[in-house]
Design a protein that fits this description.
CATH class: Alpha Beta
Structural class: alpha+beta
Shape: globular
Largest sheet: 6 strands, antiparallel
Number of domains: 1
Strand content: 25-35%
Distance between the termini: 18 Å
Helix content: 25-40%
Strand order of the largest sheet: 2-3-1-6-5-4
CATH superfamily: Ribosomal protein L5
């Protein structure tokens, strides 16, 4: 299956932060992202969540990721927020509840092919007893 997606990533850069460190946080989870610096913010784009998916599998947080992705679904897009400090360490930590004072990394994914649900199943497959199951078997 070939997936066609557009990923837009934004992250505030506060006066107390080093822009390159915020860029590193983005690259740690989205290594292929092209980053542009704007006053007080970084804007990045890419067309893959493969590395993020690998981290979700390694950290065994597929169910959490699915919950965040589906909660942020709107039409052909889904959005979620990640904590900057965790991303700087190469870890995925979803930002829920009150935001941190540094601000979060905001990710918006528009799925062109095939559809949002299938793409989420690809990035963060359903699990059974904590292990991924083949999405086609569970339907």
């Amino acid at each position: 299956m070939i997936y066609s997606i557009d990923v837009q990533i934004t992250a505030p850069v506060n006066d107390t932060e080093v822009t390159d460190r915020v860029a590193d946080a983005i690259h740690n989870l989205f290594p292929e992202a092209e980053i542009e610096s704007h006053p007080g913010e970084l804007l990045a784009t890419c067309h893959s969540l493969d590395h993020l998916s690998e981290r979700l599998h390694e950290q065994a947080i597929l169910d959490t990721a699915r919950g965040q992705f589906f909660a942020g679904q709107e039409g052909d897009t889904f959005s979620f927020e990640l904590k900057k400090q965790a991303a700087f360490r190469g870890a995925v930590n979803f930002a829920v509840g009150e935001g941190s004072e540094l601000g979060e990394i905001h990710v918006r994914v528009r799925v062109k092919e095939p559809d949002v649900e299938s793409f989420i199943d690809h990035v963060a497959p359903p699990t059974e007893d904590g292990r991924p199951v083949d999405a086609t078997e569970s339907r």
